[in-house]
């Protein structure tokens, strides 16, 4: 044995270690680079690649929400216009060529002398024409049309809600002067601050008759028969409503003898046709769709690699109103990583070194046969679910075997490339999606999906799970 | 490598922080020899050393934010490489795949005289030690760890660390002697 003292021995090996300069092997960097790509692929790089798709997915629901919001806004504007009609009787007057008297303008009309103070003639019907100046209003049907439309909307959307029918069913309400206490209290009352008792008011309270009744009369009658009425319009339909129970505190004023509003009807020359109901568009029988999807494939639901690509061309046939049969072709490139245990090696391998894992790139032609059912079907939007079965044809398979010691001279198979053909009914399909119609013939679809293996596929007989998100353009031909 | 604690190194590190592949490659290339030398002392084969090397560099590139630029990058790198090698050793221990001491003892050595032994050959002698001897020897003699630190790292007692070091030296002497005897026999024939 060599008699080297400890420090000499240490020095020998220390010096040797310090001076050792192993040669650089570019393959080592390539191996690390691949790992870095995988590592970064989970975060920033993947995001950089796919953010446009994510943005698109966000824009679809935002677009739909905007559409809904605009629709609501349009309706609200329609209601607001109805409201504007009432406080601005001048507009009506100018349209109709008549000076309607509005309660808010009572002072004004009294001071001009055109309407003499007539305490008893002031009723809770806040708009009326004095008998002395009552004129027959022959409405111009053309001028009436816009108002009719607005009132129609108001009748449908607003008045019917605010004033229940029971408020109009009070006995005798149409045959005698209307006083606050003689009416049903179900409809509530409106405060009329400009009318004092001395000015002929009844103490500032009126019922909601004017707004509701006028609205109902004008809209119903105008809409149904085309008759135009001389009834005035409530100048402030949204005045403060106070509970009818508070009326008990107010003394009954018999001075405020109401005058029944006189309504004169003139048959217009042209009776406007009632608005035709929109024709129900029957469901199209056929449709074709072209789709693109990122294709995320995995063996064993782990070790996800970068997504591949899938494109599809599918035809759909409606077999029931909401049920479609769907088939076509899907081309996809599936990148995946399989651990050795998931990959069945051919028997010819024998005792050769076995790989630790396999990197696979498969180009697959898929023939799906699916059913699609529309669970929610709106005018523009549909939500649907789908399920079916797919057969795979392996167009090309490329596998790279990863060994623990790649330089091992006993390694015989570095990889494999070829095709293993058809795998019939190999996958179960499941999807759910949203369709938005952008025109009568075209619609956009977003549809997350999964392909669940029913049998092993490919040269390595792997249980290949695929997930993705179809972004499709659906075309509905003219024929139905 | 004194020149690399310089502006060039800082530029490379800045690029690595931005996940720039070119900067990463240059840094890797620059410190490859230094890092794999460490790995080789702690492993049995070059393949194993490469595996540890890349594990260590992956940590370097992904944890570079935690590096204090005021300190030596080389020292930081060596700590990471050694720690990665020790992690690897712990995993191997759990798998219990090490050869027995007897098998390791019977490994033949190259027929070269000690005076002509290259660095690679001396290194191969270290690699032929059993893992526990190899690690203690490398940590103590080459990387300058104290027995307390070694005991802490390897989860053994200080006494066991000292004992392993002593036996490692003994084994190395044996292997060196065998090389000499073999060389003598070869020349005598």
UniProtKB/TrEMBL annotation, chain B:
Domain of life: Bacteria
Residue ranges of every copy of the RNA polymerase sigma-70 region domain listed in the record: 27-92
Sequence ranges assigned to domain RNA polymerase sigma factor 70 region 4 type in this UniProt record: 120-172
Alphabetized CDD domains for the sequence: Sigma70_r4
Keywords: Sigma factor, Transcription, Transcription regulation
InterPro entries xrefs: RNA_pol_sigma-70-like (IPR039425), RNA_pol_sigma-70_dom (IPR014284), RNA_pol_sigma70_r2 (IPR007627), RNA_pol_sigma70_r4_t2 (IPR013249), RNA_pol_sigma_r2 (IPR013325), RNA_pol_sigma_r3/r4-like (IPR013324), WH-like_DNA-bd_sf (IPR036388)
Pfam family, one: Sigma70_r2
Family named by the database record: Belongs to the sigma-70 factor family. ECF subfamily.
Listed NCBIfam families: sigma70-ECF
Protein name (record): RNA polymerase subunit sigma-70
Organism this protein belongs to: Dyadobacter linearis
